[in-house]
Amino acid sequence: MMVWQALVNNLSLKLLALLLAVALWVLATGAKDSERDISIPLSTRNLPAGLSVASPLPGTIEVTVAGPKIRLLGLRSEEMSLSLDLDNLHEGTVTFSGMEKRLRIPPGIIVMRLYPSVIEVKLVRTAKRGVR
Predict the structure, then answer these.
(1) In-domain check, residue 93
(2) Same domain for 114 and 64?
(3) Which residues fall within 8 angstroms of residue 95, CB to CB, at 6 or more apart?
(4) What is the pLDDT at residue 58?
């Protein structure tokens, strides 16, 4: 009987203390830096008229990001994108590097690794068809 009284005595205060302890634990563990791998879709834009892409391009880029654990848990690949701008390019092979600078990522998140880190795009003239 004495043990039961000790448990239920000041029950609301004990529950509040437990709630505060859990909240503090969540904040402390969520603030730690962590890493996460994510696949980001790759797209092209502004393809000049009369040219087409002849080289195969990866559909996604594999990215390892780092940041506060709580931010990484809520990170979705839809929030990040990578687009290669083909505007003002001519026939030939173009090498895109420094992809981490082109990547749109939320603030507080750092790119640790990106694969492939270099993408080569081969542009060729499209054949014009004559009318008979």
Answers:
(1) yes
(2) yes
(3) 118, 119, 120, 121
(4) 92
Q: Are residues 39 and 25 in the same domain?
A: no
Range of the domain at 50: 32-125
What token pair was written down for 63?
Answer: 């990215």
Same domain membership, residue 66 and residue 15: no
How many CB atoms neighbour CB 114 within 10 A? Answer: 19
HSE value, Cβ hemisphere, 13 Å, CA-based, for 7 = 4
The tens digit of pLDDT for each residue in 37-48 reads 999 888 899 999
Q: How many CA atoms lie within 13 A of 69 on its CB side?
A: 9
The answer as to whether 75 is a domain residue is yes
Q: From residue 34, give the alpha-carbon distance in Å to each of 39, 75, 85, 108.
A: 17, 12, 31, 12
